[in-house]
Amino acid sequence: MEELIGLIPAAGKGVRLGLPYPKELYPVIRNNHYKPISQFVVDNLTNAGLKHIVFVVNETKHQLMGYFGSGMRFGCDISYVVQEVVEGKTKSTSPGLAHALDSAYHLVRGKTVLFGMPDTIIQPKDVFLQGLSALQAEDDGLLCLFPTQNPGKFGMVRSENGRALEIVDKPQKTDLQYMWGCILWKPRFTEFLHRAIHERGVYDFAQILNQAITAGLRFKALRIEDGAYLDLGTYEDILELDKRLRED
User: Fold this and answer.
1) 211 touches 167 (CB < 8 A)
2) Tens digit of each residue's pLDDT (9 = 90 or more) over 165-199
3) Of 183, 174, 179, 121, nearest in space to 154 by CA
């Protein structure tokens, strides 16, 4: 398990929601107990047996660090990396994501990375464990795919015979039905991501994934047919999240 590491990018400002606290601490009440939304991905990772998780944060995320602390209460070690500000580098449809992931390069290099977003609830709880079980020696990575009816919000994946062929990021119109919700990757892609940013100046995460696939890196596409992916980006998402949780 020391060869595995969790990676959670939480450096966004959350300006769309304008909450008085980090959106990663948005309260989800279950069984009369407070549980911030970001704890769900932490639980997903520890359910897969991970003992070390890295949060990438910005300089204002004191409350997030105060809640998770060392990770002891969650059965793991938690490290924090502050993402440096990058100005005017890209017109990416997911600005800052690739750079946030690479900010933890010094901690994740040489390891198999399990990456999930902190403002989402992913079901089933063993999604990362399923990914690890499906990841084979010849694979450089694996994308866990979830069905969605809102492709314009997500990175849609074109796949064939269980292999990812192309990422189409936030398309306005598409026949694709599955989006990536979390990703596992091996050291070869960590190095590819690092070089893409620092040597080629590419900051768009979807573009980097596509370049990696074109370069011959093998990404498996694992459809989580009975899965669900709930994200928290807008007030409409909050209403949908609350509705779905009440139904559960």
Assistant:
1) no
2) 999 999 999 999 999 999 999 999 999 999 999 99
3) 179
Put simply, whether the predicted model's pTM sits higher than 0.85 gets the answer yes
Q: Which two tokens stand for residue 141?
A: 């990575």
Contact by Cβ (8 Å): 164, 213:
yes
Give the model's pLDDT for residue 3.
94
Catalogue all structural domains in the chain, each as residue range(s) with its CATH number: 4-13+20-237 (3.90.550.10)
Side chain identity, residue 209: L
Instruction: Please report the beta strands in the chain, taking only residues with DSSP state E, as ranges in sequence order.
Output: 4-10, 27-30, 33-36, 52-57, 77-82, 112-115, 120-123, 141-147, 155-160, 163-169, 178-185, 219-223, 228-231
User: Would you state the pLDDT for residue 1?
Assistant: 55
In terms of Cβ atoms closer than 10 Å to its own Cβ (0-12, 13-18, 19+), residue 225 is exposed
Joined tokens for residue 54:
């890295």
Q: Would you state the torsion angle of the CA atoms of residues 12, 145, 209, 188, taken in this order, to the nearest 10 degrees?
A: 100
Please enumerate in sequence order all residues whose Cβ is within 8 A of that of 7, keeping only pairs 6 or more positions apart, or say none.
Answer: 53, 54, 56, 101, 104, 108, 113, 114, 115, 116
**Under-70 pLDDT residues of the chain:** 1-2, 13-18, 30-31, 86-95, 233-235, 237-239, 241-248
Residue with tokens 């050291």: 187
